[in-house]
Amino acid sequence: MADPKKLFIKTYGCQMNVYDSERMAEAMGGAGYVTTETPDDADMILLNTCHIREKAAEKVYSELGRFKGLKAEKPDLKIGVAGCVAQAEGEEIMRRQPLVDLVVGPQAYHRLPEMEEKARGGAKALDTDFPEEDKFEKLKGRGKAKRAPAAFLTVQEGCDKFCAFCVVPYTRGAEVSRPAERVLNEARDLVERGVREITLLGQNVNAYHGDGPKGGTWSLADLIWELDKVDGLERIRFTTSHPNDMQDDLIAAHGECSKLMPYLHLPVQSGSDKILKRMNRSHTAESYLRLIERIRAARPDILISGDFIVGFPEETEEDFQDTMALIEEVKYGQAFSFKYSTRPGTPAAERPLVDDAEASDRLYRLQALITQQQQEIQQSMVGREVSVMFERKGRLEGQMVGKSEYLHAVHVANADVNVGDIRAVRIVESSANSLGGVLV
Ligand code: 5AD
Ligand code: SF4
């Protein structure tokens, strides 16, 4: 039998790309490929790209340029671009970088094996359609190999919100939810393969509205409650959510469903009503704060995480101070913050920019505040007992590392535990990015 061909996938961007890369690797397994950790011995290289900010897209072109030598040494090497840059700039990529043999948009991954065959035949292959069929259903099964204890599962894709700065509604298309039964089957399959924690993914995951197994439409909370019944599945998470889609049943589930972890990523982007309006967010700072209050009433210890954009067109220092005030009020356990990046084709791209040095300064100040809050919350964990699911060995001999229910990384020295074990841990120290604890 011929040696299997080797596939190297490099993933950029969000967790949905991580999930997609896994599924593509599995699909290509059906076409005789095994994955490799380095591009050097690969027969096929796939860059699964992100288009959310300008830098993310530029990285792809510089990475592609670096494969020139490899391709010269190995003319049979096939190079593909997948993900959101592929969707947005497919033909442009082919023109700008002749090394690229195939370009596949996020909705066409199930066609990847055919495209690879076409590329092997010497032709260029491009597919950025939004076909009707469910790509996940068509992608080859996940196989039966054992899995790490924490897994992602995409339940919803696309977004109809059209925030004025964001390319997602264009690159990932309209909101589509997978039918509940398919999600449940996939979850059960993951659990059979050793998974104990599932993070449900979607660009707008709490807008999930999939067909129910017996007709009707299921909300994300319905899905969570059904997953709650799956023996062996111990932890459920979901990301990313929009404030306007936090329905009552989902808020209530945070208080009532013990498998649903007390962590919520709920981006607000800005604390200024003027900017929120221009961002087309359809909520105010006040409505966001009241929502957080309701969520905390349901689950007082929930850790809130967010996304922020600073330097959105025409943001003034006063608008920025509104954002800082909102952060002060919420107290975030985690946050991702970005300087506004113009995305061609989005409504905000037409508006006057904030001075770049000013935007950088705001980002610096915002991140300092978030870091302070994060550290205070971590510090408040010292002395408390948390539940940790162990995911890997640590760098030190005998050390094991896992995640608490609040998604903090926790390391335990001389821990007599296995990967996948969930154990009570008393936190004894907090450092920059993690907590240290002892088994209880
Ligand atoms: N510029 C900067 N940040 C952006 N995001 C999305 N679009 C842009 C942009 N054009 C950020 C938002 C979003 C996160 C995934 O990326 O904060 O929530
Ligand atoms: Fe982009 Fe807004 Fe949709 Fe999030 S909700 S994916 S930021 S358009």
UniProtKB/TrEMBL annotation:
It is found in: Cytoplasm. The keyword Transport does not apply. [4Fe-4S] cluster 1 binds at C14, C50, C84. Residues 5-121 form the MTTase N-terminal domain. GO terms for molecular function: tRNA-2-methylthio-N(6)-dimethylallyladenosine(37) synthase activity. Keywords: 4Fe-4S, Cytoplasm, Iron, Iron-sulfur, Metal-binding, Receptor, S-adenosyl-L-methionine, Transferase, tRNA processing. Its EC number is 2.8.4.3. Transmembrane segments: none annotated. [4Fe-4S] cluster 2 binds at C159, C163, C166. Pfam families: Radical_SAM (PF04055), TRAM (PF01938), UPF0004 (PF00919). Gene3D superfamilies: Methylthiotransferase, N-terminal domain, tm_1862 like domain. Its main location: cytoplasm. It comes from the Bacteria. Residues 145-376 form the Radical SAM core domain. Residues 379-440 form the TRAM domain. Binds 2 [4Fe-4S] clusters. One cluster is coordinated with 3 cysteines and an exchangeable S-adenosyl-L-methionine. It catalyses: N(6)-dimethylallyladenosine(37) in tRNA + (sulfur carrier)-SH + AH2 + 2 S-adenosyl-L-methionine = 2-methylsulfanyl-N(6)-dimethylallyladenosine(37) in tRNA + (sulfur carrier)-H + 5'-deoxyadenosine + L-methionine + A + S-adenosyl-L-homocysteine + 2 H(+). Its cofactor is [4Fe-4S] cluster. Belongs to the methylthiotransferase family. MiaB subfamily. Monomer. Catalyzes the methylthiolation of N6-(dimethylallyl)adenosine (i(6)A), leading to the formation of 2-methylthio-N6-(dimethylallyl)adenosine (ms(2)i(6)A) at position 37 in tRNAs that read codons beginning with uridine. This is tRNA-2-methylthio-N(6)-dimethylallyladenosine synthase. It comes from Cognatishimia coralii. The lineage of its organism: Bacteria, Pseudomonadati, Pseudomonadota, Alphaproteobacteria, Rhodobacterales.
